[in-house]
Amino acid sequence: MRKLAAALAALSICIPAAMAQEYPARNITVIVPFAAGGPTDTVARLIAQSMTGTLKQTVLVENVGGAGGTLGAARVAKAPADGYTLFLHHIGQATSATLYRKLPYDTINDFASIGLITDVPMTIVTKKDLAVTDLKSLISYIKTNKDKVSYANAGVGAASHLCGMLLMSAIQTEMTTVAYNGTAPAMRDLVGGQVDVMCDQTTNTTSQIKEKAIKAFAVTTKTRVASLPDLPTADEAGLPGFEVAVWHAMYAPKGTPKPVIDKLSAALQVALADRTVMARFAELGTEPVSKERATPAALDAHVKAEIAKWAPVIKAAGTYAD
Predict the structure, then answer these.
(1) Can you name the residues that pair with 89 across neighbouring β-strands?
(2) Considering the entire predicted model, what is its pTM?
(3) Are 153 and 182 in contact (CB under 8 A)?
(4) Which CATH superfamily is domain 14-120+247-317 in?
(5) Mean of the pLDDT values across residues 83-102?
(6) Which residues, including other chains, have CB under 8 Å from residue 14's CB and lie 6 or more apart?
(7) Nearest of 117, 38, 109 to residue 307 by alpha carbon
(8) How do residues 151-176 score in pLDDT, each as one tens digit?
């Protein structure tokens, strides 16, 4: 009996090792919990293309939008822990822990971290014909016309929702919020003049700003971004201390064998050093994180720190979703 138990124990150790050696043997799917065409989708497709070359198997992106990213997250949490279903999400992975009263998964315990990808600055933008010239005059306009000014976001839990929540808190003025099912339709209506204001990632706004399809007033980082050098920081433009960046990261279902996680993390690090990825990120106003941050341990620590950071902000705003 002892010999049988020992044999089974040895087999259980060998299976993950053997699995990692042959992994990946087929296509890998990366779930993006938002609609195609949005900033998180853009990041995912760039990373997937590079990882395809490294892993010698096609890395596909599948968009599973809805409920502020929680539908896609729930699908990954319940997926087989074999490395063939991955998850790429932004800051919402941390904020959802407080934002939603009930989640069908545990943000910390149902996912295995692979690594951080990028920190994306946000931009405060408006429709192009809004009669304001700078951030101070925009804030004054919002305060004076608060019942008429509309704020677009990509849905509860989206980066644009979170930035808007902080912006309204910072200027102590509520705007009429218009929630969309994804970033692309929200931006389309901003460009079309159906809504007034938005705060969204440079990965979604840079091209529209450069084409003058929308007006830009500030970037929400401590320093200006290289792709938009003439755009002041919020601090420079008259909103002291207003700072928010949206980080993206990759996960697998909890229980995915460590050798598989290590192989995926290594492939992610190759992607972040890929010149094509770096160049495209630069065009979009962001850059890859350092190699030290693109690791499972760094992401574990980051998610816990972000949950602690955002929980009081969300609770103070009194914004929750069922």
Answers:
(1) 249
(2) 0.79
(3) no
(4) Bordetella uptake gene, domain 1 (3.40.190.150)
(5) 93
(6) none
(7) 109
(8) 999 887 788 988 998 899 899 999 99
How many alpha carbons lie under 13 Å from residue 305 in its C-beta half-sphere?
Answer: 7
Tokens of 91: 């800051």
Same fold, 14-120+247-317 and 121-237: yes
Return the exposure string of 128-164: e unless at least 16 CB atoms fall within 10 Å of the residue's CB, then b: eebebeebeebbebbeeeeeebbbbbbbbbbbbbbbb
Instruction: State percent of the chain over pLDDT 70.
Output: 92
Beta bridge partners of 29: 60, 85
Burial (0-12, 13-18, 19+ Cβ within 10 Å), 299:
buried
For position 68, what pLDDT does the model report?
80
pLDDT at 15: 54
* Residue range 121-237, CATH number: 3.40.190.10
Placement of tokens 């279902």 in the chain = 253
Q: Reply yes or no: is the peptide bond before residue 24 cis, omega within 30 of 0.
A: yes
Cα separation, 137 vs 126, in Å, equals 12
Domain positions in the chain are 14-120+247-317, 121-237
